[in-house]
Design a protein that fits this description.
The chain has 253 residues and is an alpha/beta fold. The chain has eleven helices and eight strands. It binds 3-methyl-2-oxobutanoic acid (KIV).
């Protein structure tokens, strides 16, 4: 495992992307990415659910197994799905199952409220990545994907969440859709790296859902993403070409 704290101290930016299958994982790994996350965004961009609240541990294990076969260099982190870490005992059990199928670290959503779970996981020597800010597993209670840190009390809660997860043993923390200025304050306040998603440029690293980056989920792209490719259009183009070629009597090669 790379020394991510040292990267922070040296101001070397940390790069992270999601993967849910073998070829994508292998391609990202060959692209020198630092961290590959089997995110529970799997639910939306691969399984066609409306949000991440239906993703099961079985699904996460299945996809983590596939991704693990494609990763040689990057750190492989797997998300713990909703209701797989309701108690510290359940959290460590879930974390061990993900490690057994190839994850090198795990992530769950929550800050100070989940210190007991995080401590139990790190006590079992499983590297842990935290996730605070907008928590997609709580999207239904929250009523949507809302930017975090706009009010003084929200900003203070985020800073104490970040301090709490660092103290509990996290090696890094994802900041999802946090106001850029608050993300900057959090980044200065803690010794572990912050990995931002929609949280501005001052984080120690950045993470994106790969489907958003490469334009593979064209029906929805978060506002903060600038896609680098239009893979969905290429797939449509190739499929139409095949359909036309076949219908006009071609061999379909
Ligand atoms: O599920 C996911 O993909 C994530 C991130 C993008 C941070 O949690």
């Amino acid at each position: 495992m790379k020394d991510f704290r040292l990267m922070k101290q040296r101001s070397e930016k940390i790069t992270a992307l999601t993967a849910y299958d073998y070829p994508t994982a292998r391609l990202l790994d060959e692209s020198d990415i630092d961290i590959i996350l089997v995110g529970d965004s799997l639910g939306m961009v691969v399984l066609g659910y409306q949000d991440t609240t239906r993703v099961t541990l079985e699904e996460m294990l299945h996809h983590t197994r596939a991704v693990a076969r494609g990763v040689k260099h990057a750190l492989l982190v797997a998300d713990m799905p909703i209701h797989s870490y309701d108690t510290p005992e359940q959290a460590v059990e879930t974390a061990k199952k993900l490690v057994d199928v190839g994850a090198q670290a795990v992530k769950l959503e929550g800050g100070a409220s989940h210190v007991a779970q995080i401590e139990e996981i790190t006590r079992a020597s499983i590297p842990f990545m935290a996730h605070i800010g907008m928590l997609p597993q709580s999207v239904r209670e929250e009523g949507g994907y809302r930017i975090k840190g706009r009010t003084q009390s929200e900003a203070e809660a985020l800073i104490s969440d970040a301090r709490a997860v660092e103290k509990a043993g996290a090696f890094s923390v994802v900041l999802e859709i946090v106001l850029a200025d608050i993300a900057k304050q959090i980044t200065k306040a803690i010794g572990i790296p912050t990995i931002g998603i929609g949280s501005g440029e001052h984080c120690d690293g950045q993470i994106l859902v790969t489907h958003d980056l490469i334009g593979l989920f064209p029906w929805f792209t978060p506002k903060f993403v600038s896609p680098e490719a239009r893979v969905a259009e290429e797939i449509r183009r190739a499929a139409r070409a095949f359909v036309e070629r076949t219908r006009s009597g071609g061999a379909g090669r």
